[in-house]
Specification:
Blueprint (H helix, E strand, L loop, with lengths): L1 H16 L8 H13 L13 H5 L8 H13 L3 H25 L4 H9 L11 H16 L10 H10 L3 H20 L7 H21 L1 H11 L13 H10 L1 H9 L6 H4 L2 H20 L9 H4 L2 H12 L8 H14 L1 H16 L2 H12 L6 E5 L1 H7 L5 E5 L12 H12 L3 E5 H16 L5 E7 L23 E8 L17
Helix pairs in contact: 1-5, 2-4, 2-21, 5-7, 6-17, 7-8, 7-9, 8-9, 8-10, 9-15, 10-11, 13-15, 15-17, 22-23
Length: 510
């Protein structure tokens, strides 16, 4: 029942408020499909300053399964931003369908499944390849759990993991590790003979496919490395960053609760139970992701663990409180509190986000963008947030660039200085930013530019009448990116650019 209710909420949210608003890097993944429909050619011209090969030849900055799937969808359903949003909702529905099959496979009672499904409210940013990759991963898990029932499941899980790997490499590695550990646990408890062929296929198929691709398409592999070398997954070691820990706590509170309780039950006889095996392995994988997110990987990595959270919670509750038993009141209260914590953004989208949509909805925001951009001179360069690029890329007479990728990533420059240098070199006629991108990244950049009227004059128009959460520093890490209203910036460049320093003039808003 809750699986259906969550899906219905997502449909209503999209129909009436056009949420979730595409995130800052959504067009990075979708731009090639959009360009293929609008202009021909599977490339993403908005990335010309960041990955020239993917911008001008063929998009290969990321594994191809998701961009190709989006390309097929857009050739059938159109290249607008709303088409992309519906595509992600369809993928989410497919993910829910496989999740329901796993609930059925484990015979989760209705009440346990409903509590587990409530943690799906933590999944609100899904406009990346991650949801599709997890869909493949869950299909692989479903096949792996049936490996002792049908011969065909020997290769099916390996194929699912490989497709997940070619959609998002990190997700593919996660599910490959989960399935391998599940197999070893079952072999240890003599529930399986050692699955030589399935395990060999699981281990060898992804790297062999990469090796074949490198030999078959060396230019495309070089294009992939062009992006990968600039955005490595590893970061300098960090441990005591409070915001990272809070992000983990909000993302997977259900899994963390299970992890706290589970050590008291780590007895050998419990590991022979299929549900306990699943809980133990997936909890271990989730904790590994969380540990990486607060130490050596980017903090956003923890979002990859959200997709396994309903399985962890549902399987644990069913093992700990079998069918016919009633959940103790302390567990009901604990689960309710954890669901509310995980659903903070979902609640914000349904309230504050709805208010922002009533102030200026998607159609009004895109019309304001088009009306303003049409007044720029032919050939003008304009910088856009992802949410507007789907429509802006179809406008003739302008060069549309992605705001998040205006320059190569260089360690010797701060992001602020790199953005300043990129803007003063490009001299764009204007920028059209969503509220999130303006407050998150470009407000301090524009402050610096305003301190140099000898270089540029700036006119800024904020179309939002209802201030979004991004406008309040205290709310920026609680609720983000729920408004369509654009921030429109016009530049009048006075002379050839020099290096802009560190002025501190405030940015006017109207």
């Amino acid at each position: 029942m809750i699986l259906g209710a969550v899906l219905l909420w997502r449909v209503l949210l999209l129909v009436f408020t056009a949420q979730p608003v595409p995130a800052n890097d959504a067009y990075f993944f979708d731009g090639a499909a959009v360009n293929s429909v609008q202009h021909g050619g599977f490339a993403n011209p908005s990335l010309i300053r960041f990955t020239p090969f993917s911008a001008t030849n063929v998009f290969c900055a990321y594994p191809p399964v998701y961009p190709l799937a989006m390309c097929g969808w857009m050739h059938a359903a159109g290249s607008g931003v709303l088409s992309s949003m519906w595509f992600h909702l369809v993928i989410f529905a497919g993910y829910l369908a496989v999740l329901a099959q796993l609930f059925h496979r484990w015979q989760l009672p209705g009440a346990r499944a409903n509590w587990a499904a409530l943690f799906l409210l933590a999944l609100t940013f899904d406009d990346r390849p991650d949801t599709l990759a997890h869909w493949f991963g869950l299909l692989a898990l479903w096949g792996w759990l049936s490996i002792d029932r049908a011969r065909w499941t020997g290769w099916f899980p390996a194929l699912g993991v490989t497709l997940a790997f070619w959609t998002n490499p990190e997700v593919g590695l996660i599910y490959g590790g989960v399935l391998g550990l599940l197999a070893l646990v079952k072999v240890f408890h003599r529930q399986w003979k050692f699955p030589v062929f399935p395990l060999a296929a699981l281990i060898l198929l992804p790297p062999l496919s990469v090796m074949l691709f490198k030999v078959w398409q060396p230019e495309l592999w070089a294009g992939f490395l062009e992006h990968a070398k600039q955005t490595p997954s590893l970061t300098p070691l960090r441990v005591f960053v409070l915001n990272d820990w809070l992000k983990v706590l909000r993302a997977i509170p259900g899994t963390l609760c299970v992890a706290v309780v589970l050590p008291a039950h780590l007895r050998r006889e419990n590991w022979s139970h299929p549900l306990f095996q699943a809980v133990g392995v997936m909890t271990l994988a989730s904790l590994g992701i969380a540990a990486g997110a607060v130490t050596v990987f980017t903090a956003d990595w923890v979002s990859l663990a959200k997709y396994m959270q309903p399985l962890v919670v549902g399987a644990f509750l069913t093992w700990r409180f079998p069918a016919g038993t009633v959940l103790p009141r302390r567990w009901v209260a604990t689960l309710a509190a954890l669901v509310l914590l995980a659903a903070v953004r979902a609640i914000g989208m349904s309230t504050w986000g709805a208010a922002c949509a009533a102030d200026m909805d998607r159609a009004q925001a895109l019309q304001a963008m088009r009306t303003h951009v049409e007044h720029y001179s032919p050939g003008a360069t304009v910088v856009f947030s992802s949410a507007y690029l789907y429509e802006a890329s179809a406008m003739n007479g302008i060069t549309a660039l992605h705001e998040d990728w205006l320059h190569p990533i260089r360690a010797e420059k701060t992001e602020l200085q790199a953005d300043l240098d990129a803007l003063t070199e490009l001299k764009p006629a204007g920028m059209v930013l969503v509220q999130y991108d303006y407050y998150r990244r470009f407000q301090p950049v524009l402050r610096e530019l305003l301190a140099h009227p000898e270089v540029v004059t700036i006119t800024l128009t904020n179309c939002a009448h209802v201030p979004p959460p991004d406008a309040y520093h205290a709310m920026q890490r609680v609720l983000q990116h729920v408004a369509w209203a654009p921030v429109i910036v016009d530049f009048k460049w006075q002379e050839p650019s020099g290096r802009v320093g560190s002025g501190r003039s405030p940015v006017p808003q109207n």
